[in-house]
Amino acid sequence: MTIAYTTVQDELEALHDRTLRLRVADEFSTLIFLKQGQLSWGVEGQGIKGPGLCYWPQGQRPVLTLGAGGSVRILGLSDNCILDAMGARAESVHLRMLVEYPFCVSVTDPKNLTQVIALFDWYGDEYHDVERRSPMSLAAYLRLIFVSALRIYRPEPAEAGADQTSILRQFRHLVELHYREHWLVPRYADELGVERDRLHRICKRETGRSPAELVYERLTAEAKARLEMSGFPLKKIAADLGFADATRFSHFFKRRTEISPGAYRAIVSAPDADDLVELKRGFADWP
């Protein structure tokens, strides 16, 4: 595993206010544990006092200033790292919705703080021990960090007029729960209580993709994840993803990726697979 998966950067106690020079790739998301002190950003002087957690999806991180006496641990998270942490359970949709947007939250409860400190310590220890560094372990620690953040952070209710965004989020939630059952778009629309045409317009306007494309992308992303991260035979993967048999799964996968499942697994398992960014699944593939 290389730093193409994740990075860890520690900034020890600052002697004076200073701009953080982050060693996080532009295509990475950023998760920061503010151990102590003040972290601020933006022209309006937004900020948070430690201890606290801050997260920005890729491309959305502002210029950050660490106040005197402050210290932080900064995680750079690739798409693959986040996907591995999300997992494929019904609860995963809540984590998925958590990391769609930036958030910052103070960690004031002693029990929560003890857990967060331990998780960031374990993540850092795993990352810095090059001989045993394991993507599976890092993803497991990151999942627990996200779960802790979810229990602490409570997003503000949607503002009036955000009906379309709400419908899209509900649709994504349903997709996460039922994509393995191969629901058709009309059933999603019925569950949401909206016309199929309206759901189509909202998805196209907000994401540039139709509802069916979003469902197929989620199914494809999960197929890629299982081919990459498990040694299960195609027959089992096909069954787990709701396909009648491995042949139908193979036909679906090849239509979506222009490569067979077996060939995909062989390629991404190669020693230089970390360089195949354009082939491997990413967070953007996951609606």
Structure description:
It comes from Granulosicoccus antarcticus IMCC3135. Residues 169-267 form the HTH araC/xylS-type domain. This is HTH-type transcriptional activator RhaS. One of its GO terms (molecular function) is sequence-specific DNA binding. InterPro entries: Homeodomain-like_sf, HTH_AraC. A five-stranded antiparallel sheet has the order 1-8-3-6-9. With 287 residues, it is α+β, with helices and mostly antiparallel strands. The chain is globular, with a radius of gyration of 20 Å. It folds into two domains: 6-152, Jelly Rolls; 163-285, Homeodomain-like (Arc Repressor Mutant, subunit A, Orthogonal Bundle). It has helices at residues 79-86, 92-98, 110-128, 135-152, 163-178, 185-192, 196-207, 211-229, 234-240, 246-257, 261-268; strands spanning 6-11, 18-19, 29-36, 38-41, 46-49, 52-56, 64-66, 71-77, 103-106. Residues 157-161 and 283-287 have low confidence and may be disordered. The longest helix is centred in the middle third of the chain and has 19 residues, at 110-128. The chain has eleven helices and nine strands.
Task: Give the SSE layout.
Layout: E1 6-11, E2 18-19, E3 29-36, E4 38-41, E5 46-49, E6 52-56, E7 64-66, E8 71-77, H1 79-86, H2 92-98, E9 103-106, H3 110-128, H4 135-152, H5 163-178, H6 185-192, H7 196-207, H8 211-229, H9 234-240, H10 246-257, H11 261-268
